[in-house]
Design goal:
The protein is an all-alpha fold and 117 residues long. The chain has one domain (5-73, 85-112). The chain is 68% helix and 0% strand. The protein has helices spanning 5-26, 33-46, 54-70, 87-112. Helix 1 (5-26) packs parallel to helix 3 and helix 2 (33-46) packs antiparallel against helix 3.
């Protein structure tokens, strides 16, 4: 008995979106993280079925999940002042990154595994 790639991809994408939403709320990234992961959750719900546009939706999942993970980091994090963040914030910022990894893994399943007719 094997798992249907579409259902596996949808489950991974939805799980990643939920983890990303929790992490985005924890890091207070309500303008970039929450809307991005909410969109990933909607796309994951559409990924459960076999559709012609499934690969396009999976590509959109990769983009919006990565965008949501970037929302967890303040803008100055990417410059030389990144040492100013409290140590506990790095653990909180890792939660959306974990959600992104799960969602991208689901998108890779959708994009790369062969589909049965």
């Amino acid at each position: 008995m094997t798992a249907d790639p579409d259902r596996l991809a949808g489950a991974l994408i939805c799980a990643g979106a939920v983890v990303g939403l929790i992490g985005s709320v924890a890091t207070m990234s309500v303008f970039l993280g929450v809307p991005s992961f909410a969109l990933v959750l909607m796309l994951g719900a559409y990924a459960f079925r076999k559709r012609k546009e499934g690969r396009l939706l999976a590509a959109a999942v990769v983009w919006f999940a990565a965008l949501g993970a970037l929302g967890g980091f303040p803008p100055f994090f990417f410059f030389r002042f990144y040492g100013l963040l409290p140590a506990g914030y790095y653990w909180l910022a890792a939660i959306p990154v974990l959600g992104t990894a799960l969602a991208i893994a689901g998108a890779v399943v959708k994009l790369l595994l062969p589909r049965r007719a």
